[in-house]
Amino acid sequence: MLPIYLCLRMISSYLVQIKVSLFDTKYSGLWVPSKDCDVSQPACSEHNKNDNTMSLSYVRHGLPFLSIDTIRIGRFILKSQTFGEVFNFHPTMFWSQWDGVLRMGYPALSLFNETPTIVSKNEIHEKIVAPTFSFYLNRKHNLHSNGELLLGGTNPSRYEGELTYVDVTRQKYWQFKIDKIKTERNTFCSEGCQAILDTGFSMIAGPPQTIVALKLEIGFNEIVACREIPNLPHIKFVIGGKTFRLTGQDYVRKVTEDRCICMLQSIPYNHLLKNF
C-alpha cells in the first residue's frame, strides 16, 4: 500500500478536528465518523467524530447518512458542503491514524448525487493560483518523510524535469490516453488505450492478456528475489508523446529483505468495461 497522507480538518462551526486520509481520485466525496456510530465497535471510540447537534451551520439532509455543513480545510472555508457520516467501522479502522476519507474524483462519481464536490467548490478555486492539485507519493514508510497533497499547483522540489500535461478524455475518472506501452521485445496498446490515475490504488492494473504478457517478459509472476531487481527489464509508457520509463525498482515492492512482489495486476474485462 502507499503511505497514508494525513490532513487536519475542521468540521462544522464548533471546530472539531478530524483527520482525513486516502485522497482517492477514483471516487468522490468526504466521509467522517458520526457521533452516533456503534459504540460496541472499538474504532468508534478511538476516532474523532462529527456532532451535528453542536453546529450552528448544520442543515439536515434528506438521507440519514448525509449531512450538510460548513467545512474548513486549511485556509479554505466551504459552506453548505454535503458529506457522508460513518456509523459502522471495519475492525481494521481501530488501528488507523486517520478518522475519515476525502475522495478527489469528479462529481459524476459521487455517491451523494450532489454537486459541487469539494474538488470543484468555488471557495477553493477563488483562492488558489491554478485549478490544479498534485500528489507526491512517498514510498519510504517512515513518519519523518510523508506524502504531500498540494492544492493550487505543484511543488518543484518533488520532481525533476518538466511536467507533461494531457487532456482528460472523460470527466468521470481522471481518465487519459496512453499512446503505447513498450518493452524490449513487445509493444502493447499500439493504437492507444484509455487509463485512469487512481491515488488510492498502489498497483499497475490492466487487461489480463496484457498483464500476463508483461509478466512473461519480466520473467516472474508474483514473487522475485529482491537481488534480481537491477536485472529486471524496463517498461515504457508513452503518454502525450513523451516516454516514461519504469525500472524494476518502480514496479516491484519489497516485502522482506529478499522477498519482493510484482505490482502488476490483472483486472477482468467485465470490470474494465464497467468502469470505462
UniProtKB/TrEMBL annotation:
Disulfide bonds: 189-193
A Pfam family recorded for this sequence: Asp
GO molecular function, one term: aspartic-type endopeptidase activity
UniProt-listed GO biological process terms: proteolysis
Domain annotation Peptidase A1: ranges: 5-276
The keyword Protease appears for this protein: yes
InterPro entries (UniProt xref): Aspartic_peptidase_A1, PEPTIDASE_A1, Peptidase_aspartic_dom_sf
Keywords of this entry: Aspartyl protease, Disulfide bond, Hydrolase, Protease
Stated family: Belongs to the peptidase A1 family.
Protein name listed in UniProt: Lysosomal aspartic protease-like
Classification of source organism: Eukaryota, Metazoa, Ecdysozoa, Arthropoda, Hexapoda
Gene this chain is encoded by: LOC112466966
